[in-house]
Amino acid sequence: MQQQHIKAFIIHLERATERRAQVSELVSQLPVPAEIITAIDAKQLRDADVTQAYQPRLHKPYYPFRLSRNEVACFLSHRKTWQAIVDQNLDAALVLEDDVALTEDFPAAFSAAVSVAAQGGLVRLPFRSDRETGAVVLESGTTKVIRPVPVGLGMVAQLITRNAAQALLKATEQFDRPVDTFAQMSWVTELKPLSVVPGGVQEISANLGGSTLKQPRSLAHKLHRELMRPLYRHSVKIYSRKSG
What we know:
Elements: E1 6-12, H1 20-29, E2 34-38, H2 47-53, H3 69-87, E3 92-97, E4 100-102, H4 106-120, E5 122-124, E6 134-140, E7 143-148, E8 157-161, H5 162-171, H6 179-183, H7 186-189, E9 194-197, E10 201-203, H8 219-243
Parallel strand pairs: 1-2, 1-3, 5-9
Antiparallel strand pairs: 3-8, 4-10, 5-8, 6-7, 7-9
Helix pairs in contact: 3-5
């Protein structure tokens, strides 16, 4: 895959002014041309937009929590980026969220991701290197590319081919869970994501005013999530092994 057919998209919420300097820093550091994708703002989402996109209990295992408006907006922002990959007829794009910073491992991680992009369609650059395990498909120095089972969480950085973007758009005309948990479901997307370890990125939202997704929750709601989260993740592991 020729690098000149790859560009970067940085998803940025316009009202998150404290992140603008980091976005500019990313643009200057990235090895490919970068474009800012204006994130969908949850505060501007109409009820009709949410109802059209979000449909609970579409896929098994069923996601046990109702999506917040912020989570719906985040998913729509990633779909907007996938559409840009298709519309611009790119071979692939490096998709970054605006709370990510590059580390010294990034050049090797990005090079490895480009070299295997055609194999996985979606290649994750995770900010946590100890959360995923799987068969090694490429090893170069201290950099490895694995086929994780299950696919890890988080969507701070990933290389996505045009074919994968098309598949993701088709599979998510409606969705029932957050974008990172949806990306885990290879049995729905028919993609086999890969992960680069180390990913060459770090998540720095705490340094930029905190997450734009979190919202206040009651104690009962927090307890419910603590009880249901491990059960759901266990189900994802089972489905992942079957589909693998």
